[in-house]
Design brief:
This protein is mostly beta strands. The chain is built from 2 helices and 31 strands. It is flat and about 75 Å long.
């Protein structure tokens, strides 16, 4: 006769600080996981799901089998609150259990992203219901540009500009946060570009009028309108992003600097390179510590890691770039210090031209100038003329460039002829070869990415102070 399986429970409460009423169909879930192995998926040994969740505090009692608990195991409790598959709250610290203390567990949930915990029930009258998409063809210097704008109720946007008269790749994506400007009613999009995008909602949101770089109407008889599509048709943006990446057991996620959104990270593409860099860089005593990363990624739908949940917007790592321990996302402009002249000491987004750019990575590899006599590799694009200057590691660099929208080419590159050591000269040669292949540029806050025609990042620079 088989002996009955012995069972136990882990009980406690979970709550959050925000005074926010959850949607009536929100779901609370709490699990016990064995996270003893950092290089393997966590094993769930107990789970409780409360549906509908109600309002906090959430009281739970998670059953588990005694046979699933081993001396080598390391057990923690993790909790989430979701609404229609979207993560609203989650625990972000390790809470050990089954370690002999046996006291009730108290969990503190953190709001995900910087948007509201629940979808807005009354979006701005200027738009009507959100999410929504607008699209229109607007003339540009090199031909028509198809603008596509997605607005979400959580204050985030997606933007795609497709240059219709150019061969592929001819689409450039951006993400960020939107707001309606008090007084003018203008829609302001702020993301990873040099300057904000201004649009004027018209006809109750049926139309968005494209404004100029200063936010004024464009004096032209040509089209300047984006029309609202019958249904939201969100793009899958492909772009360079920075964010705070976290990996613990089988849970990988990134909080995007541009939007504040937290997305799961798919374990495909170049994920393994990101995972290896993270495991090497994180503090040994802080598993799950968020670290700042830069990568080329695709935001798209993927099946949810949670059983029974619908597909979720997910980050797919197409090319891992950099990881920077000890740093966080750049602070918003309103939090930066100002000089006596009333100007920001450090711009939120560095301009392409007039900035001294220092090379951080070449073909995905971090660049450390050999010393001596190597020097930092720097690039400066004149704000007044189409000329460039800088250093290529040993010699001074000079030349010209052409610029049209997000496309760029370098030409007539020349340098001084000083001889340095073999290692320095090899780096200088690789740098010059990469510059010759550059066709696109992109700025994410204070990072400049120079890419080839396919969108592959060749060179990564950081703006100087």
């Amino acid at each position: 006769m088989t002996a009955p399986a012995m069972a136990g429970t882990v009980s406690g409460t979970a709550t959050f600080r925000e005074r926010i009423a959850l949607p009536p169909d929100a779901v609370f879930e709490v699990v016990i996981e064995d996270v003893a192995r950092a290089d393997a998926p966590a094993t769930v040994i107990g789970r409780q799901r409360i549906e509908p969740a109600g309002q906090p505090p959430f009281r739970f009692s998670i059953p588990y089998k005694d046979s699933d608990v081993t001396p080598r195991g390391r057990y923690t409790v993790r909790a989430t609150v979701r609404h229609q598959g979207r993560l609203l709250f989650t625990t972000d610290t390790i809470t050990p259990v089954l370690d002999g203390r046996n006291q009730p567990v108290e969990l503190r949930l953190k709001k995900v992203g910087s948007g509201p915990a629940a979808p807005r029930t009354s979006p701005p009258a200027a738009f009507g219901a959100l999410p929504a998409s607008w699209q229109g063809d607007i003339p540009g210097a090199g031909g028509a540009i198809r603008w596509h704008v997605d607005l979400a109720a959580d204050g985030t946007y997606q933007l795609r500009q497709t240059f219709l008269n150019r061969p592929q790749p001819n689409a450039f994506d951006d993400i960020g946060r939107w707001r309606l400007e008090p007084g003018t009613g203008r829609l302001v999009l702020r993301g990873g570009r040099e300057a904000p995008v201004f649009l004027q909602p018209l006809d109750g949101g049926a139309v968005l009028r494209k404004l100029d770089l200063e936010g004024a109407p464009i004096s032209s008889a040509q089209n300047d309108r984006l029309k609202r599509l019958p249904q939201a048709a969100p793009i899958d943006p492909r772009l360079q992003v920075t964010g705070m990446f976290t990996y613990m057991a089988d849970a990988a996620s990134i909080r995007l600097c541009a939007t504040g959104q937290r997305l799961p990270v798919a374990m495909e593409g170049d994920f393994l390179a990101l995972q290896r860099a993270y495991l090497q860089a994180r503090p040994a005593d802080k598993p799950g510590q968020p670290l700042l990363v830069g990568l080329q990624g695709l935001i798209t739908q993927r099946p949810s890691m949670e059983e029974g949940q619908p597909p979720r917007r997910t980050m797919v790592v197409e090319q891992f770039g950099t990881i920077t321990p000890g740093q966080g996302c750049p602070k918003p402009a309103r939090a930066q210090k100002r000089s006596g002249r009333g100007q920001s000491r450090r711009q939120l987004v560095a301009p392409l031209r007039g900035t001294t750019w220092t090379l951080l990575a070449l073909a995905g590899e971090t660049v450390v100038p050999p010393q001596p006599p190597g020097r930092a590799i720097e690039l400066q694009l004149s704000a007044e003329t189409l000329r460039l200057a800088g250093s290529s590691g040993c010699n001074r660099l000079m030349g010209g460039f052409s610029l049209e929208g997000e496309t760029i080419r370098f030409s007539q590159l020349a340098s001084t002829r000083m001889a340095c050591g073999p290692e320095v000269m090899a780096l200088e040669r690789r740098y010059s070869e990469a510059l010759a292949l550059v066709r696109r540029w992109n700025i994410d806050k204070r990072s400049l990415l120079l890419q080839d025609a396919s969108g592959k990042t060749l060179l990564l620079f950081q703006a100087g102070e």
